[in-house]
Design brief:
Largest sheet: 5 strands, parallel
CATH class of the largest domain: Alpha Beta
CATH architecture of the largest domain: 2-Layer Sandwich
Oligomer: single chain
Order of helices and strands: EHEEHEHEHEHEHEEHE
Structural class: alpha/beta
CATH topology of the largest domain: Methyltransferase, Cobalt-precorrin-4 Transmethylase, Domain 2
Strand order of the largest sheet: 3-2-4-1-5
Bound molecules: S-adenosyl-L-homocysteine
Number of domains: 2
Number of helices: 7
Helix content: 25-40%
């Protein structure tokens, strides 16, 4: 059996209880070493076999899993954040399906959520933005043309941009050409939830320079959102004159 587990954004306490239990029980662990906090591996059994996938190809990862299956071992494939985002989990699940190997997926706290927590912000303020776009700047990995930052910018919603801080100038250019005002607030959170987390705040106009001065080149979330600095309407959910399934409106 193979368990794909979301490790969370960095803080070892942000893995789910189920993910932690599978790590404790695993015979074989393959972890995404470039981003997973190695402190999570302290949970593993002393004799667990541990592989860092940072230096492995897809075929090498699959070989380790097939070998573990042949020995009836339990494998944890530990992905950073939540495995459904930019984790290349799809191709691994497809390969296991073909071999008839059973697996499940344990979700994790994605870094775009850890970034909101670090910023102490709500991405969905009433009347400001009710939509969060999760995306990345295309380059070596192709992004469909309809999803270019430039076209997504037309919505002026909250946008969480992964894997792109090293291309901040391209990001800013596409977003401004696409429709955001230069004064739109931007926050960059490097290593959200880690002990050495860093937050840089600015606007589309200022952020490029600030990021370069701070020397941030990887493991950072770019959050572009009118919600970062905005007057907003109070929610309907907790409004006194609003009834819903769990509460009658106060007269
Ligand atoms: N599956 C992961 C994303 C993997 S792609 C998730 O759900 O978070 C790797 C990218 O995620 C990085 O380039 C960066 O943009 C972002 N990232 C991962 N961990 C991060 C963290 N602790 N703080 C900020 N960004 C992070």
């Amino acid at each position: 059996m193979v368990h794909f587990v979301g490790a969370g954004p960095g803080d070892p306490e942000l893995i789910t209880k189920k993910g932690a239990r599978f790590l404790e029980e695993a015979d074989v662990v393959i972890y995404a070493g470039s981003l997973v906090n190695p402190r999570l591996l302290d949970l593993c059994k002393n004799d667990a076999k541990i592989y860092n996938s940072a230096s492995m190809t897809l075929d090498e990862v699959l070989e380790v899993i097939y070998d573990a299956e042949a020995h009836n071992f339990m494998t944890v494939r530990l992905h950073t954040g939540d495995p459904s985002l930019y984790g290349a989990i799809g191709e691994q699940m497809d390969a296991l399906e073909k071999k008839g190997i059973s697996y499940d997926v344990i979700p994790g706290v994605s870094s775009f959520l850890a970034a909101a927590a670090s910023l102490k912000k709500e991405y969905t303020l009433p009347g400001v933005s009710q939509t969060v776009i999760i995306t990345r700047q295309g380059k070596r990995t192709a992004v469909p043309e309809e999803e270019s930052l430039k076209s997504l910018a037309a919505h002026k919603s909250t946008m969480c941009i992964f894997l792109s801080v090293h291309m901040i100038d391209d990001v800013v250019r596409e977003l401004t050409v696409g429709g955001y005002d230069e004064d739109t607030p931007v926050a960059v959170v490097e290593k959200a939830s880690w002990e050495d987390e860093k937050i840089i705040r600015g606007t589309l106009k200022t952020i490029g320079k600030e990021i370069k001065e701070a020397g941030i080149t990887k493991t950072a979330m770019i959050v572009v959102s009118p919600c970062l600095e905005s007057e907003y309407e109070l929610s309907r959910l907790y409004a006194a004159d609003f009834s819903h399934g769990f509460r009658e409106a106060k007269k």
